[in-house]
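Hey, quick one: can you model this chain's 3D structure?
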Amino acid sequence: MTAQSTAAPHETTESEHPSTCLLCGQAGPPLLYGHWICDHCKNVVQAEALSQKRRVIKEGGGPSSVA
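Sure thing. Here's the predicted structure for all 67 residues.
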């Protein structure tokens, strides 16, 4: 008996295509859905959110607590 390969020909799937950052478009690793946010953009967004939160707290705004 001879050994035969039963593997199907390799098909390209969506997960094998490089992804891009949703904010800046930088090429990234292959992912299942192809969407991600790079570390730089993630840090920028988190810093902006923290700045906005501090501004709201400083101004006395934010969600009101109704008792």
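One thing worth noting: The chain has one helix and three strands.
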